[in-house]
Amino acid sequence: MQKIIMALLMTTLSLPAYAGHKGGLEKCLRAATALRSGDYIKVEYLGFADEGGSAYEIEVKDVNGKYWEFECSADNNQITEIEQEVKSADDPLFKRNLKIKESEARKIALDLYPGKIKEVEYEIESDGKASYEFDITDHFGVEFKIEVDASTGEIVEVQIEQWQIGGEDEVK
User: Fold this and answer.
1) Which of the listed CATH numbers 3.10.450.40, 3.10.20.600, 3.30.70.2190, 3.40.50.300 matches domain 87-163?
2) Which of 6, 81, 149, 162 matches a 20 to 30 Å C-alpha distance to 28?
3) How far apart are CA 118 and CA 136, in angstroms?
4) Count of CB atoms within 10 A of residue 32's CB?
5) What is the pLDDT of residue 11?
6) 163, 17 in Cβ contact below 8 A?
């Protein structure tokens, strides 16, 4: 899969939508691989709705079959966040700090950005905290990623997806 993504990057990054990303994205891919080797599943380019700036989100399936997401700053090509993705809110790592039900977290996210939830991810932050990540498409077709803390219900992060290469791989 890693070779396929690299081939896609080499061919699709010449398109206007990806202009200017090739060098920085390659640095971010190398930085993520240095931390967790494995196969690239997808890469997204995200703008931060709440902080400004932009980042690449790189999903990797490691040699043990675990899924990891790396957030890499598009400004300085540094990894700023590492999260482990688990299959569901029933995973012991997720349940450890779980206080907010998924239905409550969905309401919190949709109250902030009304639309249709396309996907839910269950993430374990590097400090062990659990969070829900909702991909919400609004009525204009804009996709937002809303991260809700599973123990407090607070919004952790809001991002706007600019583009994506690759697809979702089911976490097992």
Assistant:
1) 3.10.450.40
2) 149
3) 6
4) 25
5) 46
6) yes
Cβ-based neighbour number of residue 4 at 10 Å: 12
Nearest to 54 by CA among 30, 73, 38, 41: 73
**Other CB atoms within 10 Å distance of the CB of residue 28:** 25
The answer to whether the beta carbons of residues 105 and 134 sit under 8 Å apart is yes
Question: Comparing 68-72, 77-81, 140-144, 162-166, which segment has the lowest mean pLDDT?
Answer: 162-166
Q: Where in the chain is the domain with CATH 3.10.450.40?
A: 1-85, 87-163
CB 122 within 8 A of CB 85: yes
DSSP state of 18: G
Q: Are 134 and 150 in contact (CB under 8 A)?
A: no
Q: Which two tokens stand for residue 138?
A: 């609004």
Instruction: Name, in order, each residue with C-beta under 8 angstroms of 86's C-beta and a sequence gap of 6 or more.
Output: 67, 93, 94, 122, 123, 124, 171
How many other CB atoms sit within 10 Å of the CB of residue 138?
12
At the top level of CATH, the class of 1-85 is alpha beta
Q: Which distant-in-sequence residues (6+ apart) come within 8 Å of 37 by Cβ?
A: 60, 62, 63
pTM of the predicted model as reported, rounded to 2 decimal places = 0.86
